Every structure is written in C-alpha cells, then in structure tokens.
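Build the 3D complex.
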Amino acid sequence: MTRKIPQSTVRRLSHYLRSLEGFEGSGGTISSEELAARGQTTAAQVRKDLSHFGSFGKRGLGYQVDELRARLRQILGIDRSWRVGLVGAGRIGLALFDYPAFQARGYDCVAIFDADPAKIGEAWGEQTVRSPDVFEEVLRELDVELVILAIPASAAQEMAERAVEAGVKGILNFAPIRLNVPPKVPVQDVNLVMELEALSFAISQAERNA
Amino acid sequence: MTRKIPQSTVRRLSHYLRSLEGFEGSGGTISSEELAARGQTTAAQVRKDLSHFGSFGKRGLGYQVDELRARLRQILGIDRSWRVGLVGAGRIGLALFDYPAFQARGYDCVAIFDADPAKIGEAWGEQTVRSPDVFEEVLRELDVELVILAIPASAAQEMAERAVEAGVKGILNFAPIRLNVPPKVPVQDVNLVMELEALSFAISQAERNA
DNA sequence: TGTTGTGAAGTATTTCACAGCC
DNA sequence: GGCTGTGAAATACTTCACAACA
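Done.
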C-alpha cells in the first residue's frame, strides 16, 4: 500500500468526493458505474482508483456512501483541519481568503502577510495583514502547516525557502515559477496563464482540424 | 501533423515559453538540455515535444531563441489577441481582470457580466459590469471568442450553454462542475479546492511514508 | 444476481540511443 | 564535435474481463 499514486488518480478522488456531496440523505449505496457517470470516467477506473487504498466496497451492492465519503476525506487528508498562512494580500490572495469552499473543507487561514507597507495592519475578517519581517516567527508560533504563495515570481523562491525553514509542510504556489524546495515539502502549482494558454491551444487545434 | 497532443505536452510548451521570457538579449541559441534544466523535464522530452510541430532546431547548435519563442507562441495560439468575456464580477473575477500577465499575453477583457443588481453598472477600468440579460447580444456584438466563468456551480451550466449559443469558441471554467457542452468548444477547468486537496493528499502521503 | 477487486491486455507517454546533419 | 530528430524500448496508465463473493 501507499505506492506512488499518480496525480490523475488524486484528481479523480477529489471528483468522487464532490460527486457524493450532493447525494440523497445517508445510508444509501452507490456503484462504481454511477460514480463514473458523475465524474468523467469509467467504472473500471473508479474501482481501480479506490482499490489502491484498500477494498471498501461490497460485492453485489456497491459502496456505502457514508463510508466512502469518510474514506475519501481521510485519503485526501481533509478529515482534519489545516492551518494555512496566506502570503500576498493582493487580488488573488483576497479571492482565496474569501473563498467559502476553503473554510468548508477545513482550511483555516490563520495569518496573512504582505510586503506592501500600505497593506500591513489592514484588517481582513479576524486577521490583520502582517509584515514579512515576522514571517518565520509567526508561522512557528501559530503552527502553520501550509502556505499559499500569492505573490510575484520574483519573491516566491525566497518566501518558499523561509516557509520551509519555518517548518511548513506544503506549499500552494500561484507564482509562475518552479520552486526549488526539498522533496519532503510538496508543492502544488496553480498557473493561471498556463490554463489560458492550454485553452487557446485547444481552440487553435480545433480550428486547424476543422 | 496535428495528431492529438497530450495535455502534459501543452503544459510543458507553456513552460518552455516562460523559460525563454527571461532570456538574455536576442540572437542566442539554447539547447534542449538547457531548456530541460529550466523546466522540470529531460532533454529528450523537450525534443519530442517540439518535434510534434515540425523540426525547427539546428543540429549541433540548438534552437534559436527568437524563432523558438515565435513558434511556441504560434503553437499555443497566443500569436494573436483574444477577446475575452468575464462572467462573474466577484473576488475571483476581479483578481483575473486585474492580472497583469493576462493583458501582456494578449487576452483582452472586453465585457464583464454579473447577475447581482448591486454590481451592474459598476465601472471596472474601462469596462462596466453588465446584466446577464444582454449576455448573448453583447457577446455577439463584441465578437467575444472566449469566456471565463467565475461564478457559482449552480449558474455555470446555464451560462456555458448561452455562451456556446452565442458563438464562443472556448471556456475557462472556475466553477467546480463538469460543463456539458459540444465537443467543438474546449473547456479548461480550474478547480482551486481540488488543488488544495491534491496538496493535502501529498502531505499526508509524505507523512505516511516517513 | 449484481457488483467489486484485480491480474492481464491494451494504450499512451516517456526515455533511450543513435543516425543524420550543422 | 555537438546536438537534433526519431524509431525502438521501457514505463506508466487505462480498460478489459472474469473469478470471488455479499
């Protein structure tokens, strides 16, 4: 167990969980066929994905929804809450801070940092924007486990290193660069320009083939 | 040529282009080896990726930076500008609207829509937030080719259908649902909750294996 | 009976390795 | 001599198909 799980599988697990969110009542069961229909995949794929983590379906019946939901949460590591530090109080930072789905999933933003003196001291909900001068200190004090870097590329590498130094366990990176951090600290990149480029590529391809 | 190109290749092409952005002067050349070092991949992968679109390197020398940059832009479909409609004037919409990298890459936001009466009429830069009542009409009038859906899941399917109806060529979708649109209209999904879940999964795995 | 869990088969993607060319 | 472009080999991922079993 716990061999290397491909990123594609992880994304599907997240889909499965979301599919179950709007599921009727509780106590019901769902088959791999139904689950596949709600995602964008096949029944065999669903079963294979789940089988990597044990076998918690009942043959002839399917998966019990409550249990499946709980197992998926556990697998994805969201059967607990995460203490998050937000680095960068710009537009993207604000959007994330306000994103209701985050709190709902147990991601608690416990500190906000920005280098802009004009922003330091600003109140955001119950938080106050802090100076990067106290970065490591605050991360340690508040036991921050996960940081979101919503800052320009030029500052991202430095803040990533300082975050790792302060004992952070993972980084969600919006800056369009590859962070160089020790392999024990996972980095998840979100690159909005890349997404748009993938889209314009797909459109261009469609036009060429038309 | 133009067989099916995997998504992974497209993402790498985007990386290669970004790597070249900060390249010294012009007139230089770069080898697949150097390009690979800047991305997160191998020299063979770089050559294979590029070879899908023709052969524009020089054996013994490498790739001419200016030419490669131009070819990559062309391949990705950003050697032109795109007329973009933004649907949803919330935090995420605002963050995207203000994202400097977008204009820089030729994505021009030419219209903004929001269903909230309080927001309709608000001025955003040179744009004014419009009512969805005039959605199709405005998209057609302004020749919008690409829409960004930054609205809740409950409204996304409807707006996607209306956008397709109005002749839009592609959709960047921030709503956490699978849009059901004709295959000729590519959809690129960005799911922030999924990214965070992928991160917490990676951390949990790292801890399990430790 | 109906549906899971899983080896085996089939595809897709990546890496290797080297001929071909600058 | 050095580096690309590309078939062939290796690896990774998905789908098939069926035994196991509630």
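The CA atoms of residues 118 and 129 of chain A lie 10 Å apart.
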